[in-house]
Amino acid sequence: MPSKKTAAELRLENKILRQSRIVESVTTIVTTGLKCAMLVLIFRYLYLSIDVLAGKTTVASVLLNFLGSLTVSKTLAYLFGGTGVVYGIAERQVRRKTIKRIGGRIKLLEMMIDPDRSSSGLTDKGDPAPPPTPTPLLKGAKKHGK
Fold it and tell me: 94 with 64: CB under 8 angstroms?
């Protein structure tokens, strides 16, 4: 049966809890303040960049004309195409990491089940093994057909 805490222990515990709560509150306030400040800075610099470009023909105006000529269907096509490419690259990286992580265990288990099993020749990441490099001819050896 746990013993009851003394008054001094309870006061100390209460003090520590109050201090941790104060630190947590200050951290939350600072984090929220930084997020708001970053948002204000983003809009400020966006405004300043538009203000500088006002009335001038630049690459930005050409880009805006291109974006203005896009239709909803083209925009969706570019959006889904780009998203698909990014998703494919991310999935490939996840697959390679997973294969590398569990590959050693799988090889060990396969060798325990069948020691005479031949290797598939795949690398640790699951890619095909690079082709073998040709061995150079020995100094005294003659080439066939010459």
Answer: no
pLDDT digits (tens, 9 = 90+) for 55-85: 766 676 777 777 777 777 777 888 999 999 9
Q: Structural domain boundaries of the chain?
A: 9-69, 71-126
Q: What is the pLDDT of residues 122-146, one digit of tens each?
A: 777 777 777 777 776 666 556 555 4
Q: What is the pTM of this model?
A: 0.38
Three-class SS of the chain: CCCCCCHHHHHHHHHHHHHHHHHHHHHHHHHHHHHHHHHHHHHHHHHHHHHHHCCCCCHHHHHHHHHHHCCHHHHHHHHHHHHHHHHHHHHHHHHHHHHHHHHHHHHHHHHHHCCCCCCCCECCCCCECCCCCCCCCCCCCCCCCC
